[in-house]
Design brief:
One of its GO terms (molecular function) is actin binding. Its main location: nucleus. Keywords: Actin-binding. It contains 4 helices and 6 strands, in the order E-H-E-E-H-E-E-H-E-H. The chain has helices at residues 8-20, 48-53, 92-106, 126-131, and strands spanning 5-6, 25-30, 36-43, 61-70, 76-85, 114-118. Strands 1-3-2-4-5-6 form a 6-stranded mixed β-sheet. A hairpin with a 5-residue loop joins strand 4 (61-70) and strand 5. The chain is globular and about 50 Å long. It starts with a strand and ends with a helix.
Amino acid sequence: SSGVTAASECLEKFGQLKMSKSLKYILFKLNESRTQIIVDKNSENPDYEEFLGNLPADGCKWAVYDFSYTLEDGSQRNKLCFFSWSPDNAPIRAKMVHASSKDALRKSLEGISVEIQGTDLTEVAYETGLSHPY
């Protein structure tokens, strides 16, 4: 582990997304000094393409997205997906710190169904989130 911790705000926003369903996704990032994980952005917009547009081409982020989907019998379901976004274009050091800091955030988020590692947009496509077992 990198010694990085998740700010309390991360858990508060995650609780809001999980319980009140008022948020659709949250993006997390390291602070400037790389000592703490902070909330970068959150949104109520269910547009998955907007969510993907917030993943930088050359920087690392973590995210939680609340997938809504319909089963074959017509019933509605939700699952929380955790994304670890580390694109190939990101600096090596940033990717290393990102990878070693992930557990500080991930282990504090209870109720995640799916974890998705992404290095390019094809790996985080909507179908990827839906196709993962829950």
